[in-house]
C-alpha cells in the first residue's frame, strides 16, 4: 500500500507551485504573452505546461511548507522575479512605442488617439503601428522562445530559495527603464529630422509668400513627408529593433543573477563596535 507523508506531499506541491509562480509572473508581464487579447485560461495552461516540463530538472527545493510564512515569502519572491523578467522585455516595446509617439506628435497626428486595451491608456496611430511592427519582429526572430528559455535558465542562476533577494535587482530594472527615452529618440530620429527640415522649409515659404495659408497646406505636407519617411526608414529598423530585443533579454537574464548576489557591504548593517574598558 502506498503511503505518503505530509512532508512528501508538501514537497511535490512546492516543486510545481514555486516554478509555476515565476513562469506565470513572466507570462503576465511579458509582451505578446501578457497581452489583453490572450485569454487568461490560455496563459494559465501555458504556464502549467512549462512548469511541468521544467520542474523535474530543477535543483532541490527548500524544505519549507508552502502554506507557512517562509513558503509565502518564497512565493512572493518567485512572482517578483518572473514579473521583473517579463517587464524587462516590456520596456523594450515601450521604447519602440515612444518612438511612434514622438513621430506622431511631430507629424500632427497628436489628435488621432484611441484607447489601447493593453496599456489601459490613450495611444495614437503611429505608436500602434510601431507596436505591431515590433510584435511581428518579436515573433520573426523567435524572441518569445528565447524569453522562455531565459526563464528556465533563471532557475539555475537563481534557484528557488528562502534567502531574501538582493536590492540590486530593482536598480537593474531602473537602468533599463532609462533606455526608453534614448532608444525611442534614436529610432524616431530620421523621421524627426525629415519633419524638422520640412517645417523649416514651410517657415521660409511663409516668409517669402505671406499670402499662402500655411495652416491649410502645412498639415498635408508634414503628414505626407512623415508617412513617406516611415516607409523609407522602416526596412532599416530591423537591426536597431533586434539590438533592443537582445538588450531586453540580456537584462532579463541579469536580473536573477543580480538578485542572487549578496547584499552589498554599504547596505549591510555595520558590525557592533568593540567594547571599551
From TrEMBL:
Q: Which InterPro entries match?
A: FliR, T3SS_IM_R
Endpoints of the signal sequence = none
Taxonomic superkingdom:
Bacteria
User: What is the topology of this protein in the membrane according to its UniProt annotation?
Assistant: Multi-pass membrane protein
Give the chief site where it resides.
membrane
Instruction: State the UniProt keywords alphabetically.
Output: Bacterial flagellum, Cell membrane, Cell projection, Cilium, Flagellum, Membrane, Transmembrane, Transmembrane helix
UniProt subcellular location: Cell membrane; Bacterial flagellum basal body
Where exactly are the transmembrane stretches of this chain? 12-34, 40-58, 70-92, 129-151, 180-202, 214-237
Q: Which family does it belong to?
A: Belongs to the FliR/MopE/SpaR family.
Alphabetical list of PANTHER family matching this protein? FLAGELLAR BIOSYNTHETIC PROTEIN FLIR (PTHR30065:SF8)
Name the job this protein performs: Role in flagellar biosynthesis.
**Protein name (Swiss-Prot/TrEMBL):** Flagellar biosynthetic protein FliR
Organism name: Massilia niabensis
Upper classification of the organism: Bacteria, Pseudomonadati, Pseudomonadota, Betaproteobacteria, Burkholderiales
Amino acid at each position: 500500500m502506498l503511503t505518503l507523508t505530509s512532508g512528501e506531499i508538501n514537497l511535490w506541491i512546492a516543486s510545481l507551485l514555486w516554478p509555476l509562480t515565476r513562469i506565470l509572473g513572466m507570462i503576465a508581464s511579458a509582451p505578446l504573452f501578457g497581452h489583453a487579447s490572450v485569454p487568461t485560461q490560455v496563459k494559465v495552461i501555458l504556464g502549467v505546461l512549462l512548469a511541468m516540463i521544467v520542474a523535474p530538472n530543477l535543483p532541490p527545493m527548500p524544505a519549507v511548507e508552502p502554506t507557512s510564512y517562509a513558503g509565502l515569502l518564497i512565493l512572493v519572491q518567485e512572482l517578483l522575479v518572473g514579473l521583473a523578467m517579463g517587464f524587462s522585455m516590456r520596456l523594450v516595446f515601450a521604447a519602440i512605442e515612444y518612438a511612434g509617439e514622438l513621430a506622431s506628435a511631430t507629424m500632427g497626428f497628436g489628435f488621432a488617439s484611441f484607447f489601447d486595451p493593453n496599456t489601459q491608456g490613450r495611444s495614437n496611430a503611429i505608436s500602434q503601428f510601431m507596436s505591431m511592427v515590433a510584435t511581428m519582429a518579436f515573433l520573426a526572430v523567435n524572441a518569445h522562445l528565447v524569453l522562455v528559455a531565459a526563464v528556465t535558465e533563471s532557475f539555475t542562476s537563481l534557484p528557488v530559495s528562502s534567502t531574501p533577494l538582493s536590492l540590486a535587482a530593482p536598480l537593474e530594472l531602473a537602468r533599463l527603464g532609462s533606455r526608453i527615452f534614448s532608444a525611442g529618440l534614436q529610432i524616431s530620429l530620421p523621421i524627426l529630422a525629415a519633419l524638422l527640415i520640412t517645417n523649416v522649409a514651410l517657415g521660409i515659404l511663409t516668409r517669402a509668400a505671406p499670402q499662402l495659408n500655411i495652416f491649410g497646406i502645412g498639415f498635408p505636407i508634414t503628414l505626407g513627408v512623415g508617412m513617406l519617411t516611415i516607409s523609407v526608414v522602416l526596412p532599416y529598423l530591423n537591426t536597431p529593433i533586434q539590438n533592443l530585443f537582445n538588450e531586453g533579454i540580456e537584462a532579463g537574464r541579469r536580473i536573477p543573477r543580480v538578485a542572487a548576489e549578496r547584499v552589498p557591504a554599504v547596505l549591510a548593517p555595520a558590525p557592533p563596535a568593540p567594547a571599551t574598558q
